[in-house]
């Protein structure tokens, strides 16, 4: 069953097109990542799903009901990116407040609150005021409130923002456990390494359009590119290899090495045979892999003609609020 589905979803604010025909589908039990630069349309999409704003054209459904349906929303837990929990609350009292809003009975709240705070690693601080919490602790508290009523779908906007590396690993483990327990997680994060480690599928939004979507393996799969190095003093027969249908690119930062891209359905064996036949010695061969960050940067730059790659890499604007 699809937990989230949009079909040709469009949203305009006056003359601004925030979403331009976005179609995606999130299945039950998936951890689904939504990526995009600031202003790409991520927050708008989430607001439409939750019924905070209406759509302009297209369709959007949440847990099998039209987006914004009150009964469906009761089955959703949500951590917004910019949450400001009142500092005078303790962690426990805040959870109790949200639990009452969710309709969790008082007796059940007394049981669930310590259990949930233990899951996110801050049970020992639940009776301290939130104003004494670090940013990472507040983030864990936000995740806890989104989990408290045992929702079918948990939407997390920047769940590991402000959390140290060890804490991020613990939150990854928590999300994996939630998935194993049957929950579906829809998250937005600017930490692409984290997304690559935990998500089953990823969608990339760019200027309101869905430009890439798929599993991590599908998105990071290369066409078949190898880096080869020859014995010092030997010259790579670029023209001869190119005549076989392979694409060869010299690597200026790595003298003596080249990058060879395979045609569809081909293996590296013809190249190795040619090199051996010419008496050349291969000292280094490794298949090149893409990271999700590589895919994201290439996708964003491809969608924005004229963008300087070096400048984009220095800025690294991948996610966050809109």
As a percent range, the share of strand residues is 25-35%
Helix/strand/pairing class, anyone?
alpha/beta
Strand line-up in the sheet with most strands: 6-7-8-3-9-10
- Please tell me the total number of domains: 2
In short:
The chain is an alpha/beta fold. It has helices spanning 42-49, 70-73, 91-102, 106-119, 135-147, 165-180, 192-198, 216-220, 238-243, 269-277, 292-303, 309-315; strands spanning 2-13, 16-27, 31-36, 57-62, 65-66, 76-79, 153-157, 184-188, 201-206, 209-215, 225-230, 247-250, 257-261, 282-287.
Written overview of the protein:
By secondary structure, the protein is an alpha/beta fold. It folds into 2 domains: 2-218, P-loop containing nucleotide triphosphate hydrolases (Rossmann fold, 3-Layer(aba) Sandwich); 221-290, Alpha-Beta Plaits, CATH 3.30.70. 35% of the residues lie in helices and 27% in strands. It contains 12 helices and 14 strands. The chain has helices at residues 42-49, 70-73, 91-102, 106-119, 135-147, 165-180, 192-198, 216-220, 238-243, 269-277, 292-303, 309-315, and strands spanning 2-13, 16-27, 31-36, 57-62, 65-66, 76-79, 153-157, 184-188, 201-206, 209-215, 225-230, 247-250, 257-261, 282-287. The strands form 3 sheets. The protein has a 6-stranded mixed beta sheet with strand order 6-7-8-3-9-10. A 4-stranded antiparallel beta sheet has the order 2-1-4-5. A hairpin with a 2-residue loop joins strand 4 (57-62) and strand 5. Helix 4 packs across helix 5. The longest helix has 16 residues, at 165-180. The protein is elongated and about 80 Å long. The two termini are 30 Å apart. Residues 305-321 have low confidence and may be disordered.
